[in-house]
Amino acid sequence: MRRKNREAYKIYFVKQIDKLKARAIIEAAVQSRFPHAGERFAREEYKMQLRLFQKGFNFSQDGPGNRLVYHLQGCNLHCPWCSNPEGMPLEGGWSASAEELAAEAVRCRPMFFEGGGVTLTGGEVGLQLDRVKQLLIQLKKEQINTCIETNGTSPRLPELFPFLDYLIMDLKHYDAKKHRQVIGEGLENVEDNIRKAIEAGLKPALRIPLIGGFNASIADAEGFAALLTGMGVADKLSLELLKYHEYGRSKYDKLHIPYKMGPEARVSDELCRQMEDILRRAGLQIIHT
């Protein structure tokens, strides 16, 4: 019996060695014909990976319920008040495939209470749109609630709408020229994506980061109201005003990046309430998360 086992093992190992030899011959042939093939395949595999710089759970602030939040690396804007400067560069962070993140989300399913799920934020999700789309499709197959937070500037953003349960979008200014001058992109795609999200059956949750000297005044509130009512969407979305904060300031010091915001950027509670009142009178739904 032992002799038979030894013979069986011997046959098995010989077959495995033959397979390895055959694979080595094939790889050598490919390498001789295409000397950079291995590097190219590695680059292609790298391109299919999502780049992230942070993940964690958050309740209600990044969509409904308790949510697993993935922060994607890279942003096309340069908002000087950004609280995640480490997420601005296109390179950096760590990588994971859509399959790996979807599997992690499935394992976390018991944590998705009160309508929770997965939120993809940034950086900016639109910079990794194909990989984001792949992940969202897998999450929906697992019946996991999906949400993205976006600056709304990607012209391809509507490709993600069929796979979303909830959409959070920034509306940083109502004036296209000032929007481009301060943060680097125009407003055209943002407006277009708001309309297309509504057409797709979503109710966008728009967020205005209130920054003193940029968009936080009575006149600015009237400007936002005029934009949204003029678009004919005031009753088809929600709006949240988020006062400027300095929670990310210490990150700039660690990254040796000058922090350009001063005390004039702060916004009082009273001004915030006055702006909310103006927007409510224009027919907009104001929410607080």
Brief summary:
By secondary structure, this protein is of the alpha/beta class. It has helices at 2-33, 37-47, 98-107, 129-141, 176-183, 188-199, 218-230, 249-255, 269-281, and strands at residues 50-59, 66-72, 94-96, 117-121, 145-150, 166-170, 205-210, 238-243, 285-286.
Secondary structure blueprint with pairings:
Layout (H helix, E strand, L loop, with lengths): L1 H32 L3 H11 L2 E10 L6 E7 L21 E3 L1 H10 L9 E5 L7 H13 L3 E6 L15 E5 L5 H8 L4 H12 L5 E6 L7 H13 L7 E6 L5 H7 L13 H13 L3 E2 L3
Helix pairs in contact: 3-4, 7-9
> Architecture of the largest domain in CATH?
Alpha-Beta Barrel
Order of strands, main sheet, comes to 3-1-2-4-5-6-7-8-9
Radius of gyration: 25 Å
The strand count comes to 9
Shape, principal axes of CA atoms: globular
Helix and strand composition category: alpha/beta
Share of β-strand residues: 15-25%
